[in-house]
């Protein structure tokens, strides 16, 4: 069984784990609907780039 020869210091351990973190989603204000939405996604009201691409009364069940 492999056993480390030396104790890993806090600095070495933390620098190795420095890139492991949560990222904040890119939220933008949509002036058409007045809501915030994710980038490159359709707004909850069905708008994308200022025009309606999904009907608001469409519930997704076909």
TrEMBL record:
The keyword Protein biosynthesis does not apply. Residues 1-21 are annotated as: Disordered. Keywords: Ribonucleoprotein, Ribosomal protein. It comes from the Bacteria. The keyword Transmembrane helix does not apply. Residues 7-20 have a biased composition (Basic residues). One of its GO terms (biological process) is translation. GO terms for cellular component: ribonucleoprotein complex; ribosome. Belongs to the bacterial ribosomal protein bL32 family. This is Large ribosomal subunit protein bL32. The lineage of its organism: Bacteria, Bacillati, Bacillota, Bacilli, Lactobacillales.
